Batch of 2 targets.
Target 1
Amino acid sequence: MRFILISLLLLVAGISRADDFRTWDDGALVWSDFSGKSVMKTTPTYFKGVLKVRTVEQDKADGVFGNNPDFSTYALAVMDCGVSYADSTYRTSQMLRYHQLQFDILEYYRRRLQAELSYGVAGIEADTRCNYYQKLYNERIADIARKTVNGSNDYKLQEEEYLIRKQLEEFYRPKVTSLNPGKFSYGWYVGTGMLVPTSDLSDCFKNSWLFNIGLTFGYRRFFIKGDISYGQPDLVDIRKPLMGQQMEWATNKYTNQLSGIVAIGYRVLDTKHFSITPNIGGGWTNYAWDVADYKKNPEWDEKNPETEYIIASDIRKNKIHDFNFMVSVDFDWHFHSVISDKQAFLSGRREQYVSSLRLSPYLMKQKYDKLEGSPSGLQVGFTITYTGIARAIGIK
């Protein structure tokens, strides 16, 4: 049963051409397994062993909510027969023992990797651990090649064979577990971005960089998120009476801009390394800037044009705000994942935490009736944020 499952895994992964690949469970090596062509005259025989990780879902996503299927992650010890080769004059029983030793060592590291996968390591972290054990294997093989002089020293070869037999006997084959992702998730994000007013709004306010922070909650593939952003865009013209009152001007070019959104999204693509989530919802913006009444300076000197007008009232704040519709798309690049060792307080289960870099372009409709002429237009922008999402994981 285990042999059939591994063969199916290799087939699904696109690496199972029967003549080119084989697993450790297929039995002891024979010279006919080495079907590659020699590429180095100084290396008459060569064994290519690779560790691989494959994930198999127990059932596929279905329904409008998108089911989160149970899945198992398998570690495979694979010989690449198409790359492995052996010159006919060097196909001795001792050299075959040497390459079997290499395959046995690969199986030992596969078992160590599978033990971690069965404990809950999955996703990106599984790939990271696979690369780690592949490195350990490569280093050990290089050390054995030096000790045994590429398998020609029979005494040293026997020592290494005895050692790996003991290790395989003591390190049993770990049971492959099944992981069950929870339906609910939660997380947060923080970063920066840009806001660009368009149409009539661009006659009032300039572009600005924003600081952005928010929270997100999910049910299967549905997500709801809310965030706030802060920036300080410049006024286009500080002498422009934005509120329609003549001689009421801004005292400086700086404004305080505070905005926020509440949106619901559906994750249309969700892979180990990448996901896409379109969102629709509402966006709120608020602008505030200092203004005062100005009058002609009776002592104005033409040599100092900046003193032509002087403040004739107390400085006060003008504020405008609007709530309108918005749309956005979240592009998440997942670069790290980890499963907690302890159970979470609320769920009573261990949790998987996925770290991502998120790019979120968005459009937000705005109209400010308090401004003269009721200017309207789209606020076009994007945010780049670090995003962390946690989800309960059951292991069985």
Target 2
Amino acid sequence: MSKRKYNIILRLGDPSDDGHGKTCEFNYVFNKSKDDIFAAYKEGVEKIGFDFINEVAVEYEDSSLDDDSFRKLKEAGFDCSYFYNNGLMDNHDEGDAEYVNFLNEEDYISIFLFFVKVGDPSITYKKLDCEVLDIGGYGLFH
């Protein structure tokens, strides 16, 4: 098995800048390539039962997680205690269906990485806390 490490940036938001243009990036080191990570994600989609990146937070200002998706995450073993402990849960008017009323960027990354690990438990990763060095260049952008 290769001990190669892959530095991968996980980018959220609108990287194509065809909408609001806002993005957020998280730097990680993985033990497998970008292609392996995405293949594991797709395998996780099959096992969990919904396509997280194509079904959650796809519309402007929609950062909720519906009750069906939340139930599937819980059934797959995702630790949902953070959502309960931080007041991010709501109940619908009828029944006991629950949904997460607000996901932030770190929540989104945690759920994405859960899908990856469900798809390929051998994948390991570590978040890098990188520093930014501003080096000028304001005039380069028109």
